[in-house]
Design brief:
single chain; alpha/beta; Quinone Oxidoreductase, Chain A, domain 1; 2 domains; 7-stranded mixed beta sheet; 13 helices
Length: about 375
C-alpha cells in the first residue's frame, strides 16, 4: 500500500523549518499488519516537543524515520490474532506499547514496559518489525506510531479504543499531551485537594498539568514560563498565579506567594534550568516532578543534603505514569463531563503540507497544540 508520510532523513537542519524542510511529505510503501498488529487510518496527529526534539537532534533517534506519535484514527484492518478490536473502531494511539508480561508491566507500570522501550529506541514496532519503506529501504518508526501519515501499522498494544463521538482532532491530544500532563499530576505526584502546585513550562503538556491540578483540587496553581502570552493562557485555564521565568527573582516570587514554596512543582519544559527552578521553588517536604526530556548529555547539579534534611522528593514521570487502557477513557470522560477543558489546548489546525511551518511555531512557542488533519 502506498501512503503519504512525513519522512525525516537527517536531524539538526537549521531553522526556519519552513525553508529547510526537515520533514518531507513523500510516498512510502506500507506493508500490511502482521500478527498482533493493526492498520489505522490516521485522522488527526498532534505536533509535540518530542517530535521537535528528534528534528533538532536533542533526542537522538535512528534515521530515516517517519515521525509523529500523538494521534487518533479509525481501524481499517486487523492482523492475525487481534480479536478485541474491529474495523471501524475509533482509537487513540499511545507511544509506549506495553507487552503486559515484563517486570514493569506485571507491577502495574506499563509506561515503563521494557520491550516497548527497547523497540522505541530501535525505531521498530514492539515485535521488532519495520512496516515502512522508502525507495526500497526500510524506514524507522517513531515511538511505535509514525502518525504523520495517511495510515499507520501499529502494534495492538499501541491502540486504545475510544468513544466514537469524540472529534478526532481532540482525541489525538489524549495520546500524549493530556496523558502526560494530567497523568503526572494525578498518577505520579498524586496531588491532593488543597495542595499548592507550580507548573514550569507551559506547552501542551504543561498546560495539561495546569488543568490536571485544577481537576485534582489544588488550591493554588502557579504557572511559570518565559512567555507572557502562555502565562495569560494558563490563567484562563485556572492558574491562580503567574510568574515569568525570565525574572531574576522568579524563584523567590514563587516561594513568597506560596508561603515558602509549593508542595508540588512540575518541570514540563525539558530544559535543565527549568528543572532547577522547579526544584528550588519546592517547599521543605515537597515533591518535584519532571516530565521533560533534555538531551542525554545534560546534567543536573543539586545539593543532595536537601533531599535528606528537607525530606524532599525528586521524581520522573514518563507518559504520566499512565495505564493507557484505564487513563485515556477516564480522561476523555472527564473532558466530556466538563472537568478537563482539553478543547482549549487546540490552537491550530494544519494541512499536511504545513507541517514544517507548524514546527517553526512550536519551536518559537506560538500557540499551544497544533494538529494535522487528514481527510
Amino acid at each position: 500500500m502506498r501512503v503519504k508520510a512525513a519522512l525525516l532523513k537527517k536531524t539538526g537542519l537549521a531553522s526556519p523549518y519552513a525553508a529547510s524542510k526537515p520533514l518531507e511529505v513523500v510516498d512510502m510503501e506500507l506493508t500490511p499488519p502482521g500478527r498482533g498488529e493493526v492498520l489505522v487510518r490516521i485522522k488527526a496527529a498532534g505536533l509535540c516537543h518530542s517530535d521537535l526534539s528528534v528534528i533538532d537532534g536533542s533526542r537522538p533517534r535512528p534515521t530515516p524515520m517517519a515521525l509523529g506519535h500523538e494521534a487518533a484514527g479509525v481501524v481499517e484492518e486487523l492482523g492475525q490474532g487481534v480479536a478485541d478490536l474491529k474495523e471501524g473502531d475509533h482509537v487513540v494511539l499511545v507511544f509506549v506499547p506495553s507487552c503486559g508480561r515484563c517486570r514493569s508491566c506485571a507491577a502495574g507500570r506499563p509506561a515503563l514496559c521494557e520491550p516497548g522501550a527497547k523497540a522505541n529506541a530501535a525505531g521498530t514496532l514492539v515485535g521488532g518489525e519495520r512496516r515502512l519503506r522508502f525507495e526500497a529501504a526500510p524506514v524507522h518508526h517513531h515511538l511505535g506510531v509514525s502518525a504523520f501519515a495517511e495510515r499507520a501499522v501499529v502494534a495492538r498494544e499501541s491502540c486504545v479504543k475510544i468513544d466514537p463521538d469524540l472529534p478526532y482532532e481532540l482525541a489525538a491530544l489524549f495520546g500524549c499531551a493530556v496523558l502526560t500532563g494530567v497523568g503526572a499530576v494525578v498518577n505520579t505526584a498524586r496531588v491532593e485537594p488543597g495542595a499548592s502546585v507550580a507548573v514550569v513550562g507551559l506547552g501542551g503538556v504543561g498546560l495539561s498539568a495546569v488543568i490536571g491540578a485544577k481537576l485534582a483540587g489544588a488550591r493554588q496553581v502557579v504557572a511559570v514560563d518565559l512567555s507572557d502570552e502562555k502565562l495569560a493562557f494558563a490563567r484562563r485555564l485556572g492558574a491562580t498565579d503567574a510568574v515569568n521565568a525570565g525574572d531574576k527573582d522568579a524563584v523567590e516570587t514563587v516561594r513568597r506567594i506560596s508561603g515558602g514554596g509549593v508542595e508540588f512543582a512540575f518541570d514540563m519544559a525539558g530544559a535543565v534550568p527549568a528543572l532547577e527552578l522547579a526544584y528550588a521553588a519546592t517547599a521543605r517536604g515537597g515533591t518535584t516532578v519532571t516530565a521533560g526530556l533534555p538531551h542525554p548529555d545534560k546534567r543536573l547539579a543539586l545539593q543532595p543534603v536537601t533531599l535528606v534534611a528537607e525530606e524532599r522528593t525528586l521524581k520522573g514521570s514518563y507518559i504520566g505514569s499512565a495505564v493507557p487502557l484505564r487513563d485515556v477513557p477516564r480522561f476523555i470522560s472527564l473532558f466530556q463531563a466538563g472537568r478537563l477543558p482539553v478543547d482549549a489546548l487546540l490552537t491550530h489546525r494544519l494541512k499536511f503540507e504545513e507541517i514544517n511551518a507548524g514546527f517553526d511555531r512550536l519551536r518559537e512557542g506560538v500557540g499551544v497544540r497544533q494538529v494535522v488533519l487528514f481527510d
